[in-house]
Design brief:
Blueprint: H1 2-28, E1 43-44, E2 47-50, E3 53-56, E4 60-64, E5 67-68, H2 77-88, E6 92-96, E7 108-114, E8 122-123, H3 124-130, E9 135-136, H4 146-158, H5 163-166, E10 189-193, E11 200-203, E12 222-224, H6 227-232, E13 236-237
Parallel strand pairs: 4-7, 11-13
Antiparallel strand pairs: 1-6, 2-3, 3-4, 5-9, 6-7, 7-8, 10-11, 10-12
Length: 242
């Protein structure tokens, strides 16, 4: 009897160990550069309205978080709309919420992920910015991927992709963020506090996304006169700086 119980325990532990290993492997396989918190069943996209808005069942409209595309009649409107249509219309996607549920127009605010068999998932919000179809307008409180989108925007501008190649758009200021600039014109080092987990970093003028980072003193961010001053305040140099 004792041997039977021992055998049963060994078999049970073996089974649990197998599933444990499988679960860990599944977590490891999730691409690190794509949202990892998408859950629930996928939902089919019925139609695309424009480059940042689409409809799902029950005529519900969904607005992509953190991006903005040209309005009808503006440069690159058709291209942005067509790109989103080719990506998601008629397909099943995963929707991921940040903090806000809807905007003032009652549209769902969501990150959108396309699961692709045999290759990395496609993070649609990031794709639209990174390839020059959309502006980065990450705004509080929905800032989970603010740094990623800012970096994607800088890449698109630097490589003159999409609208940055054929249109004459000025820099887009992130909605909800204000930056009155440094109080001392000689103190232009930006101390930024990342909401994605990078912590406190500082940027000097030749860093990739220096121009797009807005300093919000209410969050504890600040301008510094020297790198030493920034480091003394607990900030480290951003990895996208030379």
């Amino acid at each position: 009897m004792k041997n039977n119980i021992t055998s049963l325990i060994v078999i049970t532990m073996t089974i649990l160990g197998f599933f444990g290993i499988y679960f860990v492997a599944t977590l490891v396989d999730v691409p690190e550069d794509i949202t990892e918190d998408v859950s629930g069943e996928g939902i089919r996209v019925l139609s695309v309205i424009d480059g940042d808005t689409f409809k799902i069942e029950d005529n519900v409209r969904v607005r992509l978080i953190g991006i903005d595309t040209p309005e009808r009649g503006d440069c690159y409107y058709d291209e942005a709309t067509e790109e989103l249509r080719n990506l998601i219309e008629g397909k099943v996607v995963k929707l991921d919420k940040d903090i806000s549920d809807t905007d003032r127009y009652d549209r769902l605010l969501r990150y959108v992920v396309i699961e692709r068999e045999g290759e990395d998932n496609l993070f649609v919000n990031d794709h639209m910015i990174r390839n020059g179809f959309a502006f980065d307008i990450s705004s509080a409180p929905d800032n989970r991927y603010r740094d990623m989108f800012s970096s994607a925007s800088e890449i698109a501008k630097r490589e003159r992709l999409g609208l940055w190649n054929v249109c004459e758009y000025e820099e887009v200021v992130k909605l909800g963020e204000t930056d009155s600039g440094p109080t001392d014109p000689d103190c232009i080092i930006k101390g930024n506090i990342s909401e994605k987990g990078y912590g406190k970093t500082y940027l000097i003028p030749n860093c990739d996304n220096y121009n797009t980072v807005k300093i919000d003193t209410k969050k504890g961010e600040s301008y510094f006169c020297t790198e030493e001053e920034a480091e003394d305040a607990g900030f480290r140099k951003a990895t996208n700086c030379p």
